[in-house]
Specification:
Blueprint (H helix, E strand, L loop, with lengths): L2 H11 L2 H13 L2 H7 L4 H15 L4 E4 L2 E4 L1 H28 L5 E6 L4 H15 L4 E5 L3 H9 L5 E4 L10 E7 L3 E6 L20 E3 L5 H12 L8 E3 L3 H10 L3 E5 H9 L3 E3 L11 E6 L6 H20 L5 H4 L13
Parallel strand pairs: 3-4, 3-5, 8-9, 8-10
Antiparallel strand pairs: 1-2, 5-12, 6-12, 7-10, 7-11
Helix pairs in contact: 2-3, 2-5, 3-4, 6-11
């Protein structure tokens, strides 16, 4: 069979239901659970998987005592299935909005540091212009939004590249920098200190982002430069909202963007400690897939991001830990273990 004939035969046999099954199998690694996820009986799901593997001419999964593990070619196929299904889902949502008289769909990934200022301003402007545009915002950390972009689950992202090779797949346009602060709750024993050093904080409980995030990498680099080890009492948390809740409920320290904690500091729920940190964190910006045209709403959104980033650079004074931080000096305190 010629290559063209084989391609046609594959297209004729594979259906989007097959792609949905592959994504479900990738998520669950269990035929029964995947069948439930796409609302088919388990025997039907098993037959569908067999049909897919027959059409492709190779096994997608190895079945062993540990369950179902993708083969090397299976990994490639599953990644394609996820991207194709995400594209179809977004197309269907966009078509439904247009059918109802709306103006399309825009799905954006964004780090939380960009959300309170730049993202919020750009979305507000876009929705003012186009009230019926369906806007969806996903993600919280750069590693999350880059993965969403790779899977084509979002149109563009506000974040950072997270490894040195991603420039091959994504274009990056820098927009702004984040001011990072070390934050504690207002009743923390350190909250009234006007002078502190990083070594004095290490024995306290910490809440930090996962090691895959740029902010956590920077935090570990700051510790290394200071000759310190990672805090022993550390909770990893990818959710900014959950981190804020943890900070408000016990005597932990966290490194967070000033834009995220600004209102909590003004409301005297949280306090910024007088320790400079994060100066070497790379700025965030617009991430898009290379060699791929953007839909018109995404192009307009990027224009608004550029405009508002310039406004913020002109109007927002640089935040400092000292300006946000404590009052009178206090005696040295020791963390409870």
């Amino acid at each position: 069979m010629s290559q063209n004939a084989a391609t046609v035969a594959l297209i004729n046999r594979l259906k989007f239901k097959h792609l949905a099954l592959l994504v479900a199998l990738d998520d669950t690694r269990n035929v029964h659970q995947a069948a439930d996820a796409i609302n088919v009986a388990q025997p039907s799901a098993s037959r569908m998987l067999g049909d897919i593997e027959e059409a492709l001419g190779f096994l997608l999964f190895e079945r062993n005592a540990r369950g179902m593990q993708p083969t090397p070619l299976g990994v490639v196929t599953l990644a394609y299935a996820r991207r194709a299904l995400a594209e179809l889902t977004r197309f269907a949502a966009d078509l439904d909005v247009k059918r109802k008289g709306g103006h399309g769909q825009l799905t954006v990934g964004a780090i939380m540091g960009a959300a309170p200022d730049l993202l919020a301003m750009a979305v507000a402007s876009l929705k003012t212009e186009r009230p019926l545009l369906n806007v969806c915002i996903l993600g919280e950390t750069s590693d999350q939004v880059v993965q969403l972009l790779h899977r084509r689950e979002i149109d563009l992202a506000l974040g950072r590249l997270t490894n040195p090779l991603q420039h091959n797949d994504f274009s990056f346009e820098p927009l702004a920098r984040e001011t990072l602060l070390l934050i504690v709750r207002a009743v923390h024993p350190l909250a009234r200190r006007t002078a502190l050093t990083l070594p004095e904080l290490i024995d306290w409980p910490w809440v930090a982002q996962p090691i895959t995030s740029p902010a956590r990498v920077l935090f570990e680099e700051e510790l290394a430069r200071a000759g310190l080890t990672t805090p022993a009492n550390l909770t990893e948390c990818a959710s900014i909202f959950a981190t804020l809740q943890l900070l408000e409920n016990y005597d932990a320290v966290a490194m967070l963007p000033e834009s995220v904690v600004r209102d909590h500091v003004r409301g005297k729920l949280l306090v910024a400690l007088p320790v400079e940190i994060g100066k070497s964190l790379a700025g965030f910006g617009i991430l898009t897939r290379k060699e791929e045209a953007l839909a018109e709403p995404a192009e307009r959104f990027i224009e608004l991001l550029r405009q508002h980033s310039l406004t913020l650079k002109r109007d927002t004074p640089a935040a400092t830990a000292g300006a946000a931080g404590g009052a009178a000096p206090a005696d040295r305190v020791t963390p409870a273990h």
